[in-house]
Amino acid sequence: MQHSYRNRKRRKLKAEINVVPYIDVMLVLLIIFMVTAPLMNLGVDIELPKSNATAIQNDKEPVVVSVDKDGALFLTIGASTREPVDEETLVNKVSAFVRQNPQVPVLIGGDERVDYGRIYAAMVLLQQAGAPKVGLMSQPTPPPDKKR
């Protein structure tokens, strides 16, 4: 009986897992992901609006397109005066100015009572004119009244 008990004890399997190969695989995968992650910039650059935004500091005078409450378009190029324009004139003038000054900022200011579709149409016209970036103008929010 002692003989069969010894055989059983010798043939008992180990219940340990050898983790060394798993650690090697994990380290190889970690290195692969660390190398390839910076190469995967597939996003789209979007500049989202921020609250309490500071004023833009530019050396160049911006091109400003204004949309009044009736949907009429007005153009201000640099330090010139604001002039009413139609869609075709807007595209032609902005296109000529942007070709001469490719880094000039282009801004749209729309009355808060005008339909958003009209402002969007003005943005499409500026895109057709070749403006690389178009920013939206706004007034800063007034500080809340402090009651005593």
From TrEMBL:
Entry's transmembrane regions: 21-40
GO cellular component: plasma membrane
Nucleotide-binding recorded as keyword: no
Signal peptide from the UniProt entry: none
Function: Part of the Tol-Pal system, which plays a role in outer membrane invagination during cell division and is important for maintaining outer membrane integrity.
Family statement drawn from the similarity comment of this UniProt entry: Belongs to the ExbD/TolR family.
NCBIfam families: tolR
Name used for this protein in its record: Tol-Pal system protein TolR
Gene giving rise to this polypeptide: tolR
